[in-house]
Design goal:
Layout lengths: L12 E7 L3 H15 L4 E7 L6 H8 L4 E4 L6 H9 L6 E6 L2 E3 L3 H11 L3 E9 L5 E2 L8 H9 L1 H4 L20 E3 L6 E4 L1 H7 L11 H11 L3 E12 L1 H9 L6 H22 L2 H20 L5 H23 L12
Parallel strand pairs: 1-2, 1-4, 2-3, 6-10
Antiparallel strand pairs: 4-9, 5-10, 6-7, 6-9, 8-10
Helix pairs in contact: 1-2, 5-11, 10-11, 10-12, 11-12
Amino acid sequence: MLQTAPDCHECDASIVIVSFNTREILRECIESVIRESGNLRIEILVVDNHSSDGSPEMVEKDFPEVKLLKSEVNLGFGAANNLALEQAKGRYFVLLNSDAFFQDGALEKAIQHMDSEPNCGLGGARLVGRNGDWQPSSRSFHSIIHDLVVMSGLAGMFPKSRFFGHFDRTWADRDQPASVDWVPGAFSIIRPEVLKNIGLFDPAFFLYYEEVDLCKRIKQAGYSIWYWPDVVVVHIGGESSRQLKTTLEFSSMTAQVIMWRMRSTLLYYRKHHGPQVYMAKWSELAMYRLTVIRNRFSRAPQRRERGQYYRTLISLMNQAWKDTQGGRVSPPRPW
């Protein structure tokens, strides 16, 4: 049974879940939150991003204790979270993907860590798939060189190297808590006064980089970001992402997701690194063009397919540059 406080300021945590056409997985997510709330006093806020699969109706019918916020358009991740964060009243704000579920004690441990680490502005969890496989759970801020290392595949080849494994911190002991640059948005716990100080998510980011930008602003304000391995959250989305990366077959949805990432990359580099946005574009295009050249004259069907894949990536990056005016503007939403 979900325990709520008469005065929401007495709530231990406000749990914010953004959903877009994830009805059944959203149900499982909410059930995990209620199950793990235990003796904690919490409020649950679900933001529905204009779903068409009956998600909001399911929440209204099966979870009347949940506060449901309906958007008339798909706002993306950051802007949708902002809707709920503006109304949340808990001692801490917890952001949870609709495809993420608390393991035993995760929520209580996260709150205990925040209580004992007063300078922590935002904390993250150990993310695992349904089968228990580890997912990258804490990361370093983006840089041109380390983005190239990841895109080249060298990060995956040498995960224990501090240089090649820099971005995903694959060299680090995943069983040890650590102060880090940023954590993925599948789960995070945030101190409300930090957001009062630095502001909410930047709505310019429709999807991708919004949590990176938020963590960067939190650290610039003098707070720390922590990774806690004993706070375990099952995240299905990480498994879906790995499947997407292993195929060279483009669907319209695949191209759209890649375009979202490219637009956000340009917006992020322009915002935080100024002229480096040109290097972000040119370096990525150079890697794609080299791959096209390497596969141009091959008779092997797989290599020809690979070449076509990277020609499409070139077109998408050029379009993303045009859409964002070189990272200066965010296209009208929904992207």
